[in-house]
Amino acid sequence: MAFEYRPMRSIIYVDCVREEYRHRLQHWLYAIHVPDSISKFAPYVTKYAFYNALPTPPEGERFGTRRMQMTEHYWMVNEMTPEMHVNAFGERMPLEVLRWQGMVPDVDTLPVVNLDGDAARSSGGDNGMPPFVFAHVPMNWQEDYKGAGRTVDDGPNYRWQFVLRWPDEEAGEKWFNEVFVPYFVGRPEVNRFVSSKIYHDVVGCQFHRLVEMWFDGPEEWYAAAVEGTKDMPKPQWAVDAPEEAPQAQFPFLKSNFNIVGMFLSDMAASDNLTQYRGYLQMR
Amino acid sequence: MAFEYRPMRSIIYVDCVREEYRHRLQHWLYAIHVPDSISKFAPYVTKYAFYNALPTPPEGERFGTRRMQMTEHYWMVNEMTPEMHVNAFGERMPLEVLRWQGMVPDVDTLPVVNLDGDAARSSGGDNGMPPFVFAHVPMNWQEDYKGAGRTVDDGPNYRWQFVLRWPDEEAGEKWFNEVFVPYFVGRPEVNRFVSSKIYHDVVGCQFHRLVEMWFDGPEEWYAAAVEGTKDMPKPQWAVDAPEEAPQAQFPFLKSNFNIVGMFLSDMAASDNLTQYRGYLQMR
Amino acid sequence: MAFEYRPMRSIIYVDCVREEYRHRLQHWLYAIHVPDSISKFAPYVTKYAFYNALPTPPEGERFGTRRMQMTEHYWMVNEMTPEMHVNAFGERMPLEVLRWQGMVPDVDTLPVVNLDGDAARSSGGDNGMPPFVFAHVPMNWQEDYKGAGRTVDDGPNYRWQFVLRWPDEEAGEKWFNEVFVPYFVGRPEVNRFVSSKIYHDVVGCQFHRLVEMWFDGPEEWYAAAVEGTKDMPKPQWAVDAPEEAPQAQFPFLKSNFNIVGMFLSDMAASDNLTQYRGYLQMR
Amino acid sequence: MAFEYRPMRSIIYVDCVREEYRHRLQHWLYAIHVPDSISKFAPYVTKYAFYNALPTPPEGERFGTRRMQMTEHYWMVNEMTPEMHVNAFGERMPLEVLRWQGMVPDVDTLPVVNLDGDAARSSGGDNGMPPFVFAHVPMNWQEDYKGAGRTVDDGPNYRWQFVLRWPDEEAGEKWFNEVFVPYFVGRPEVNRFVSSKIYHDVVGCQFHRLVEMWFDGPEEWYAAAVEGTKDMPKPQWAVDAPEEAPQAQFPFLKSNFNIVGMFLSDMAASDNLTQYRGYLQMR
Amino acid sequence: MAFEYRPMRSIIYVDCVREEYRHRLQHWLYAIHVPDSISKFAPYVTKYAFYNALPTPPEGERFGTRRMQMTEHYWMVNEMTPEMHVNAFGERMPLEVLRWQGMVPDVDTLPVVNLDGDAARSSGGDNGMPPFVFAHVPMNWQEDYKGAGRTVDDGPNYRWQFVLRWPDEEAGEKWFNEVFVPYFVGRPEVNRFVSSKIYHDVVGCQFHRLVEMWFDGPEEWYAAAVEGTKDMPKPQWAVDAPEEAPQAQFPFLKSNFNIVGMFLSDMAASDNLTQYRGYLQMR
Amino acid sequence: MAFEYRPMRSIIYVDCVREEYRHRLQHWLYAIHVPDSISKFAPYVTKYAFYNALPTPPEGERFGTRRMQMTEHYWMVNEMTPEMHVNAFGERMPLEVLRWQGMVPDVDTLPVVNLDGDAARSSGGDNGMPPFVFAHVPMNWQEDYKGAGRTVDDGPNYRWQFVLRWPDEEAGEKWFNEVFVPYFVGRPEVNRFVSSKIYHDVVGCQFHRLVEMWFDGPEEWYAAAVEGTKDMPKPQWAVDAPEEAPQAQFPFLKSNFNIVGMFLSDMAASDNLTQYRGYLQMR
After folding, report:
1. Which residues pair with D11 in a beta bridge?
2. For the segment C214-234, what is each residue's pLDDT rounded down to a tens digit?
3. A23–B279: do the CB atoms touch at under 8 Å?
4. Which residues on B lie below 8 Å from E9 (Cβ)?
5. Which among D30, D54, D271 has the least Cβ separation from residue C267?
6. Predicted ipTM?
7. CA E265 distance to own-chain centroid
8. What domains, with CATH codes, occur in chain B?
9. Mutate which of C36, C39, C271 to test chain A, going by most A C-beta atoms within 10 A?
């Protein structure tokens, strides 16, 4: 039995399907899930942070934009290996938490059960609901297309971060490199553009690529991602896969299934390993 | 020269008038304003926290709902007394920060200047823009109308917190006690209801009363505050003051001028004196 | 309505009446009560610490020795005044917690209810059970009988700390000053000896005096407090009050009712305002 | 010279042989040893925590129950390799500390010396005293016999954790799997049961196995481990090794030599890397 | 017995008379004195910080420039009142620490004793050595002569902070207001200039005034304080008091007795209440 | 693409070439560089600390003594590998910062540019200025020549730490082992002496060896390193390389080019990952 040093970053996009649930989901995340998580993985996770989703900009829904938060981990080992399988205690993940996130239907007839983490993380997609996105990537970005050297003094960033799942990986990647990348590199609104391929061998994530672009704000994003792409021809791989790429316009892919992402600012809402002090309430 | 022990809580409602400004305002708040503030008042402030505004619910605009955050301080002394007047260094408050918050017009022709804190805090209202709200109240709530004893185990709360400025204080307070309070105490959606009068002698705040009610969520708020009040008659003090109380329906008062508030969850986004670690960025 | 600056220290002695309850009581204290407490009083408490009870030494039971922890607060205001009465949320104090502490009978027929803090703190004594001890004293010790100047380099201390309730205050205090103090000042085992009178006007505490003595260890305590006092004559005030002072030997007073205390080391188990990070579990 | 990534957890059971020493040992642990340790291993230890021993339950002495604390580390490298041998400074481990822990005789004639860490850690056993227990195990548990998925909401746990040293490893392990495990899995009082084999190649620890079981409390432990095992036949390997397994009843093994353990609650007394603030004293 | 709310700032200038002592004094300050101090005054001190002395600039010796650190406290109460007199434990202040600071002669024949804090703080001056400077001033500066509104973005500051003791207070203050203040206000090198009178009723400090001026660096300080004052006439109060004002040039006062100060940067070396983690060593 | 676990310590010696720059350099280090650095490397750095340079002792300039601080990192991976190359944001390193450190000429005609970290770290030496020293060594010391077992109780240490670059590595190392080591091992002033070879394959550092010796203070250092070496013959390798070893006396090597070091105390000025709270200013 061997423990391999395998530093990785992972990204989770948490949705909130109804405003009625936002404060409840927040309570579960901070009061229940953070202490469960720190208790479990403190010895082998070096960063564990929450980043709040910015409000979805106009037409953002078409891009699979989720509305609660991005959860980020930096791991030293792959937690999914057999030697990491046994845990002293289980995490508390009632099914209603997945309902709030849109991974199971938003109905009151759900059974009241506690999921284990693996069940929770494999929910969605197969059941007709959008997939739970848990994407592992290398610790640092792999590709740097534009804007290297930009510093915090160059101004706050409006970050668009998302994962892509191609109907046909080879064709999708080719189009990404030949069309997508040059287009956004050429847009004056794009200040920074990086990307990495997603590991498939960690949790079986079906997405292929993680992308991040920085804009001055949502108006610049709209100019580049919506207005500027109006005349971008639908690629053949998309025409060939109408179920996974049903949109006539960019991004073509099926929203919330083949493209999922979030709009973020530069700053973590909570760097949990260093800032968490328990769930305290306003007086 | 004497320093009086005068423990107070204060509430500031920060607006964000355009999504293009949200991440910039966040950057100013966390990268610029928090360290300026801690450096300045750490010796006499015992709590300094930020609470994120929840998204404005339907018709929430009519209630003067602001969209960025509530800033809370607990003071041991009144910072506005003469013996507290001299400060070693100034706070950085560029005028554009007030523009982002809606205290000055959202135009590019604003001069580029740094305001001192007092100028910033007295902005708005007089210039036709909504007033900066900086309300000091007693350390604990004064009035407890409903729900005493509710604990964190009773569930996460959707908190509606707001300040009221009556055109006629006596008439307004009478109506508050005889109509407003009984109505909301009687609504099943209201789980908790507390209130305090606002001190006028600290920063000259013109609002009279701070109110907080807790609901299960925005749908319950809507039922109680919008639907349930449809037939509430417009009170005479409101009829008599069409400029300060122009709305035909509850809350009658001029939104963002005579009623200003926010929807909040139970949890601070950042308890700055204990959790702040500097402005760190996502990698 | 005025808030008076009134710095005070308070002492609570928490008992654990059966080992079956120790880990449950610990869970309630750290997982439930600490976050409730910090949320409530962070703006006006400057220190909030737990000190673990050392094991009861031989014959320690006769001295009202409690077995869980001493809870210490430093307050800036008297929380019991009318202006401090309204709290946004209630603390979670299920009746079974008082059962574990011995404030209500150790029977399974107790109703399942949540007490508010005041009800909890006034439990015991009147119901035949030992009183809840919540003693407020001046911020610093009032009387310094022996050992001033002892530093941490003089060695770890075995601290005996307790409260006394005289059947007759005047007679008791006279005896304390004329007999008790000279006796312990004269014992070579006593390294340090300090005391304060307890405020009666804060929570109505019926105890009169808080005492603390430092020894090298329990064997030295036994020599001084048990063996050395064998021939100490029973004072007249004790003879006159057989119910409150039923013991033939020192300390004469009724254990756990008229004398309550604890054996402590120098170090806090948790300085909650600075060290608490939420309830985390062993993996 | 190579540094191998080898994540491990280690367990130390610290005894306190006389109450006269408890506060002194605590002082050494927190005032002396924690800063020495953090200074030394902060770059390659990811968790360093102390867990207080619960009081020994009835008959607990027969199970090698130690009385001070369990010390837990999570290492990234094996500190015992040659490339980790040189340390800038030595740790302070006066011989009397081992006396307080029962690793050397409790006599006043001990020489006054400072041990280095390795000498301290190899003390006991060979000198007729109980061995110092420093057991390295894989980061996560290897075997999960019962209770997977139990969460913190299922209630506070009374944890029985211990190491076993078989006189004959093969026979002992066979009996463990065929008798011990089925017996405790079948007991209704056992809520959780996990175990791992101990690495022999790190510090030469002679114990074979680390076991942990969770009960509701000491009464349930007694029912399962003492009363329920009354009729368990003495296994042949125990009959064959009367010196290492002298007890007629379960656990058969020589207490404090072949079985050593502790009763623990769920919570760390101090998570030193995140909570330590220096040695501060009660006022 | 009453505890008065009396917020104050205090300033201590710690000297280091020989480089042979700098690391020893640092060790005493951080390993010994900080934990003693926090243990003692945490309930009533709201800020406790150390600021490193910058190297003494050319001719700085003539200005009573001390060479170790400035120690700053913010108190809520006057620690010197009778009700604050009794302390549970003493602080460790060996006489050699005063030797390192220049409060007692730098000779090896000093007795080895532990001083209590009051003895230490009243050392010097009377014994022919420079006085221990422990100056209490109002929480905020009283006088703001120049540079109000300067922010951290205006650049790092070279701060000259010092206390003055006039031979004749009335004459000295008059000269300060009529000559000193106008001169430095008029110097272009002075970016900021504030001052306060020192309380005499706290610890009996004999200095009259605390002054702070900010420069771009030591070269600007030299231009203003040394070169620019060459022709400043010796004031009559100085001529009249040759022992306390023996210098022919500005600052006229007896260095290290009637003027004592330090050159500081903007930043605390350690904000002890929030940053102290015990005395940890380099590996 | 693979991430190798390669724990290393690295040492940077930061100089300050003029007192006019010390507070500016401090501001850049703490206000600008620490948050940039933590944001960048928190996931794979386990310790990041600053140690203040003690004042340069007499003749210390001949030993390449730098005057600002030593910056220490403990890395889990080699940051210079291709898979670590892409960074989300750039660090802010204006050229003037290198000027303050003496890596570029101290002239006002420098262009105003932001360097990336690699450019900054490869500055100096080649341009005639002293080299930037960034030396990676094994996590623990390799050689332990004297003083093993010394503890913090043996007294505060005056640490002399430096790197050596031999003109001829083989000859230099031979002399180091045969002359240098025996000499300093034999000096009574040397309390501790350790060393490691520097990795050349990380950042291309040209220095060969890191050395650290501990003295009681600068006077003991002077006795051993200056006075005691007066008669040490200039070694042949030094005679043969007059440009790199121009000094007639020990250390022979070219100061600030072939020998660079610092005098340090035991304590970090800031352990940034655990103590940094943002850039806060004195009031």
Report:
1. D72, D135
2. 999 999 999 999 999 999 999
3. no
4. 43
5. D30
6. 0.95
7. 14
8. 5-137+268-275 (no CATH), 141-264 (3.30.70.100)
9. C39
